[in-house]
TrEMBL record:
Species: Streptomyces katrae
Protein's name in the database: Guanine-specific ribonuclease N1 and T1
SUPFAM superfamilies: Microbial ribonucleases
InterPro entries: N1-like (IPR000026), Ribonuclease/ribotoxin (IPR016191)
The keyword Nuclease is annotated on this UniProt entry: yes
Record key words, sorted: Hydrolase, Nuclease, Signal
Recorded superkingdom: Bacteria
One Pfam assignment: Ribonuclease
Coiled-coil stretches: none
Keyword Cytoplasm among record annotations: no
Signal sequence range: 1-28
């Protein structure tokens, strides 16, 4: 189709749109739809979230940073911990984690490479066997699936 009496700038825009549409169709296989999505290996091997993690973002323990995995191993062994604050009561003052009685949660420092102090990363454990990870100093948490 040839467009007559159309300003040159408009015909260029229309041509670019036509080219985009043609490329999109070609990349989708010209089948009129998109290619079927392949599940990622993380999604296909993830265990269902436990009830205590309901509605929270989750992370598999093996997907945590290596320093966090080291802390999980120390918690499993019962220490010793490198920071004197490790194992102390976490107050949940931010109210991001489910409400529990004081003393239910305990925190452990996850070393951050390049930081001179404790940094922002923590593992928080719950008295019912829960594990949570934060990398932004308690603003958000992910339930750790073990």
């Amino acid at each position: 189709m040839i467009l007559r009496n159309v300003p040159r700038s408009l015909s260029r825009v229309l041509g670019a749109l036509f080219l985009c549409a043609a490329l999109t169709a070609a990349l989708a296989g010209c089948g009129g739809g998109s290619a079927p999505a392949r599940p990622s290996s993380a999604a296909s091997t993830a265990a269902p979230a436990p009830a205590w993690a309901k509605g929270m973002p989750t992370v598999r323990a093996d997907a945590l940073p290596p320093q966090a995995r080291e802390v999980l191993a120390l918690i499993d062994k019962g220490g010793p911990y490198p920071y004197r604050q490790d194992g102390t009561v976490f107050g949940n003052f931010e109210k991001v984690l489910p409400k529990q009685k004081r003393g239910y949660y305990h925190e452990f420092t996850v070393r951050t490479p390049g930081e001179r102090d404790r940094g922002a990363r923590r593992i928080v454990t719950g008295g019912g066997g829960e594990f949570y990870y934060t990398d932004d100093h308690y603003e958000t948490f992910k339930a750790v699936l073990r």
